[in-house]
User: Fold this.
Amino acid sequence: MKDAMTNPSPAPAPIQRLLSLDVLRGITIAFMIMVNNNGGPGSWGFMNHAQWNGLTPTDLVFPTFVFVVGASIAYAFDARLARGATRAQLACHTLQRAAILFLLGVVVNGFPFFELANLRIYGVLQRIALCYLLVGLFYLWDKRVWTKVAALVAALVGYWILLRWVPVPGAGMPGQEIPFMDQSLNLVSWIDRHLMPHHLYLEAPAYNLSDPEGLLSTLPALGTTLLGLLTGLWLRTRKPLAAKALGLAAGALACLATGYLWSIWFPLNKNLWTSSYVLVAAGWSLAVLALAFWAADVHGWRKRWTWPWLVLGSNAIAAYMFSELVPSALDNIRFTAGGRRTNALAWVFIHVFAHIPGPGWAAFAYSVSILALCFIPVWVLYRKKIFIKV
Assistant:
């Protein structure tokens, strides 16, 4: 009786695989592959990240994947517990999976030469690993919804306080001695430069930037994961499907309104993963998920249109690894052609895609071709019912 009074949330629904979540994961990994191989400077603006403050569709890709990781925690962990796994076993598996993801991220950064003196330690998979580990262990330790909401608020408000009201050593107070969210003079950059010198993504002396997946900015990324987890918990309730879809739409509107309002004082910024950016990105993730949920899970429209996203989403990490390692390998196949030194990717672009009228269309065709190349192996895995889990 005491537990029912302290945690009055509805009992979870029977554990079923959520098709719309797989669709969102597949759409996200497809767009991630395309923007990571966007065809260079001729590509359209929406296929590139914002230079600093601001937002493009490309800036929504990574947080959506982190959001899906959080939503999947509720389903995956509850399913294993229902099959008889203990919390200790799940905790060990979570640590193991996070370690493998982190190491895969380092492999992506170093491939193919692994120059240890300048090997980047931070990265996409590394951030996913940390968010999955911390939020996963938090969920195992305490399943109450209110603690997740409290942690979310603490992460987003705490990060804003750190960036706005903590002086940057050797520079001064943001908004007073130095500009607020200056590209080089901010607390995130300062920590990364002192913690990982010569191991960062952005080392250009002219800007002295840090890493877009740095240490301190992992704090608001945990907020993205928690928003995903809260979404998963909402979808796990026994409410009617129509009510769940309405809740997703309401959550999207709330996140978008709050995020865009907060951005007046705390600008949208993917590199710093600002708190307003967390809310806006989650809002768009919820909007797409609401549409997919309404179509696939409420109305049962599951034929044809879901297939490519399910193929990619079922082996998302394999697709991502393939999209990073194969182009990197081709980029390092160097030879002389027409009296000029080039590489395999550049040669293909010049002799095939550059003939397409319009640089934007040429770059887009290149992106789609890379996506198609990556789709083939995961399609083979899907047909053979092989799903690679780390």
About this structure: Residues 2-383 form one domain.
